[in-house]
Design goal:
By secondary structure, the chain is an alpha/beta fold. The protein contains 12 helices and 14 strands. The chain folds into 2 domains: 229 residues, Aspartate Aminotransferase, domain 2 (3-Layer(aba) Sandwich), CATH 3.40.640; 125 residues, Aspartate Aminotransferase, domain 1. Bound molecules: pyridoxal-5'-phosphate.
C-alpha cells in the first residue's frame, strides 16, 4: 500500500484460495454477472445467514436502495434511521424521495435507541432502518415490537456486522430484509459488492428484478419496472465464496483482537461494549476516550499515532450535522460517541505482539496529549 503505515486500519484478508476461485471464474469466460459463482455465493450466504433467499448486488448502498425501493418506500414516506452511521441508509431513503427521520443511539451499545424510535413515529412512518454499528447488533426484539405495533417494515443494515448475533440469531435474518456490504475493509470482501437477504419470496423476486434493469426473468428484455444495473460480477462472487468459507475464523480473530486490545489498553479508553444479548463481531475495534478527549485532543492522538505508523479512524459524524440530513432534534449520545470515538487497526495477520505494540503506543500518546 502506498503509505507509511506499519499497521493499517482493516486490510483485506485475501490469498491463494480467493485466487484459485477467481482464476476459475476467469478461465470459464463468465466474467460478467452470469456464472456459477454468483449462485454458489448467494446460496452459501443465505445458508450462513439463515435466510431462505439471498440476492447479490454491486455494493452495500445498492443493497439498501434495492431494499427501500422493493418495500415500496416513496415520496414523502418517513423512515427512521440512526443519527450515528455511515450515510448510506439515509441516502437510500433520499434516493426514493423519502424522508430519513433521525433518531439518537443508545450510549451503551451505540445502535439506534428503541425509545427514540418510538418517539419518532408519525402517520407517515413506513419503516425503520437499524444499523448494527461497528459489529454490535441493535436491540432487535424491541425494534420488532415497535414495528409490529405500528405496521412498519424493518431493514437491517449489516454492512459492518457480518455474522454478529442477537440472542443467538444472525443479524440480517431478524427484520424483513438484511443488507450487507463487501467493500475491501469489511469482514468479508469482494472488492466492491453487496447482498440482500430475506425470508420473503416476493420481496426477493422484486429485488432480483430491480437489480437487473427491471426485466422479468421469465420474459427476456421485457421491462416490468424501471430498474437498475446493480449486479455483482462472477469474479467478485468467486472471491466472496472463498472469503465466506473462512468467515467464522475471521470473526473469531476479530473478537480475539478486540479482547486483547481491551487487556492492553489503559482505562482512559473503553472498547465498544457487548450487551449480554449480543455477540459483537468488532468490525473495527472502536474505543471511547475519556470525556477530556473531545474532537481536538482525539484528533491530536490520531495524528501522533500516524507519525508512529499506526493508522486510526474517527467515528462517523452525527448525520444531523451535515447538509443533506439536518435535523432540529438533539442527539446527545450520537455526539458523545462520534466526537470521543476512534478505531484502531485490525488485521487477520495480527499476533499478540502487534496488539501489545499498538496498545503501548496508544497508551503513551493518550498520556502525552492529556498532559498538554
Ligand atoms: C453502516 C454502513 N452501511 C452501508 C455502507 C455502504 O456500503 P458500500 O460502501 O458497499 O456501498 C457502509 C459502508 O461502508 C456502512 O458502514
Amino acid at each position: 500500500m502506498a503509505d507509511n503505515f506499519r499497521y493499517h486500519m482493516a486490510e483485506p484478508d485475501i490469498g491463494s484460495h480467493e485466487r484459485t476461485y477467481m482464476n476459475e471464474a476467469f478461465d470459464s469466460g463468465w466474467i460478467s454477472s452470469k456464472g456459477l459463482f454468483i449462485s454458489r455465493f448467494e446460496e452459501a450466504f443465505a445458508k450462513f445467514a439463515g435466510t431462505k433467499y439471498s440476492v447479490s448486488c454491486s455494493n452495500g448502498t445498492t443493497a439498501l436502495h434495492l431494499a427501500v425501493r422493493a418495500l415500496g418506500i416513496g415520496d414523502g414516506d418517513e423512515v427512521i434511521v440512526p443519527d450515528l452511521t455511515f450515510a448510506s441508509p439515509a441516502n437510500a431513503v433520499l434516493y426514493e424521495k423519502g424522508k430519513p427521520v433521525l433518531a439518537d443511539i443508545d450510549r451503551k451499545y451505540w445502535c439506534i435507541d428503541p425509545e427514540r424510535v418510538r418517539e419518532s413515529i408519525t402517520e407517515r412512518t413506513k419503516a425503520i432502518i437499524v444499523v448494527h454499528l461497528y459489529g454490535h447488533p441493535a436491540d432487535m426484539d424491541q425494534i420488532k415490537e415497535i414495528a409490529r405495533e405500528h405496521g412498519l417494515k424493518v431493514i437491517e443494515d449489516c454492512a459492518e456486522a457480518h455474522g454478529a448475533t442477537y440472542k443467538g440469531k444472525m443479524v440480517g435474518s431478524i427484520g424483513d430484509v438484511g443488507c450487507f456490504s463487501f467493500y475491501g475493509n469489511k469482514i468479508i470482501t469482494t472488492g466492491e459488492g453487496g447482498m440482500v437477504i430475506t425470508n420473503d419470496y416476493d420481496l426477493a423476486e422484486r429485488i432480483r428484478i430491480l437489480r437487473d434493469h427491471g426485466m422479468l426473468p421469465s420474459r427476456r428484455y421485457w421491462h416490468e419496472d424501471v430498474g437498475y444495473n446493480y449486479r455483482m460480477t462472477n469474479i467478485q462472487a468467486a472471491i466472496g465464496l472463498a472469503q465466506l468459507e473462512s468467515i467464522r475464523e475471521k470473526i473469531e480473530k476479530r473478537r480475539w483482537i478486540a479482547k486483547k486490545y481491551s487487556e492492553y489498553i489503559d482505562n482512559v479508553a473503553e472498547l465498544q461494549p457487548e450487551m449480554p444479548w449480543a455477540s459483537n463481531v468488532y468490525w473495527l475495534p472502536t474505543f471511547i476516550l475519556d470525556s477530556s478527549f473531545w474532537e481536538g485532543p482525539r484528533d491530536s492522538v490520531m495524528s501522533l499515532l500516524a507519525k508512529e505508523g499506526v493508522e486510526s479512524r474517527p467515528v462517523f459524524y452525527p448525520l444531523n450535522e451535515m447538509p443533506p440530513y439536518v435535523s432540529e432534534k438533539a442527539f446527545p449520545n450520537s455526539y458523545y460517541v462520534s466526537y470521543h470515538g476512534l478505531s484502531l487497526p485490525v488485521s487477520s495477520k495480527f499476533n499478540e505482539d502487534d496488539i501489545r505494540t499498538i496498545s503501548e503506543i496508544f497508551n503513551l500518546l493518550i498520556r502525552k496529549v492529556k498532559q498538554q
